[in-house]
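pasting input
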Amino acid sequence: MLKVSSNPHIRSKDTTSRIMQYVVIALLPATVFGVFNFGLNALLLVLVTVATTVLTEYIYDRCMKKKISIGDFSAVVTGLLLALNLPPKAPLWIGVIGGVFAIIVVKMLFGGLGQNFMNPALGARCFLIISFTSIMTNFDCDAYTGATPLAAIKAGEGAPGLLDMVIGQTAGTIGETSMIALLIGAAFLLAMKVIDLRVPGSYILSFVVFILLFSGRGLDPVYILSQLAGGGLMLGAFFMATDYVTRPITKNGQYVFGIFLGIMTGIFRIFGPSAEGVSYAIIIGNLLVPLIEKVTKPTAFGKKKTKKEAA
Amino acid sequence: MSEVNSEAKQGSMEVFFNGLVKENPTFVLALGMCPTLAVTTSAVNGLGMGLTTTAVLVLSNAIISLLRHIIPNRVRIPAFIVIVASFVTMVELLLEGFIPSLYSALGLYIPLIVVNCIILGRAESFASKNPVIPSIFDGLGMGLGFTVALTAIGAVRELLGAGEFFGVPVINKVLGGISSMIGREEPIEYVPISIFVLAPGAFFVLAALTALQNRVKRKMREKGQNADKIQSGCSSDCASCSDGGCAHRFVDVDGAPGSVADAKKE
């Protein structure tokens, strides 16, 4: 009766696998919309990329004689996120190369899930953008031709209608176009308490403040909304910046992280040569996470803050 | 002075292979990373940089070894640099005159050979303590080890990043052969992974080749051959060596008091 096992006594039902399954479910609206929007090649790309990431992780585990870790669904999430970041008409081998790079170089070589210093899907996306620039920035497809909304705005051309951008009927990567579908998924994740608003909230807010100050357009609601809806910001803020492994653990650190991402994205989008900057911003943010955690480490309960004495 | 290190008796060939394999400056000692990462965008550039460095290394090792009793210990580094810099200047002018294409490809990295840590490292740890002949062979071995490493990195980067090998588009030729065999009218084109000719690719390839080399070493150890023990009077692996720059490698038996060779022995 009095024998008590060691703590913890109360366990939550959340396991890595369950959380990852929630993320997959939350990404489904955007995926389905992307496939509906862009057609068969988008579906094939998603399937091939997810299959590649899972298979790569399995083969790597087998070759290295490690425990097979594909049951935690993290490889599925990586593959899905990577596929949603690809242009709809990209050849299938792009998904294969990106998937292998994401799993082996960015994730497994650093020790697998929990050890990677950078979001694997984003790392692979940047690898692909640098390697195959012309393929990765060609968003022409059957439904839409020409530039993404952000590129059109940057070039000073007329952007597509605001409603199209919010619904997602514009050119872009498979999963980034539909703000509504992404927000439905994000709401699901928030409701299931898989993510909280600290990172995405501070990210989006600071980004809005930044473009208010520096875009030179002042308070132009159409411009601001198209910056929010027309690119990869929603996908990045809710699904990639919130990655448990590569965001800071500390509460304050998460605000700092979000604000940093907002400022970096603003700099890339307004002052950079390319119209988009979410993925690079998040990757740079990922690299700074250890530093942010070090600075924002909370003091332990009961411990007095050491005051700096004046010299 | 009478204690002759048994290792000092090792033949010149052993010194030579030491630099080429067991103490390969790039893969084992991780020296000279700046040119390694910067100029290896193609196999030819790697080869050219390696051979240029080898020439400078052999000549400077020989001269420093000859002067090792004359150079005072306190000013040895400036003295080494002056010697190395004069050879680099000569090599640079020769390259500009006779191989201008390589000269323009290597660019700034030729004058930077002066501060290449392989050259200063070998001067400090080998040439200043050893007679001329072993020093020349040490320079040759280290230089060729550097050359092999640079050429290998350059070849892999060129192959993946441009689909070429020493300027020959091999991958497209092979793919063209395959496509004509299976009866495709349009040959399959290789899409180069251009990140490999950019800076990040250099890190990927260097890491992969170093890993490969470590794997070979481990396999040799499993077979009972000791690949870690380098033949330099050292008993441990270079990678885990706490002793910077192989300071006690060779003992110069006839070094004059007060010379560089003497100072290290205390």
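fyi The radius of gyration of chain B is 21 Å.
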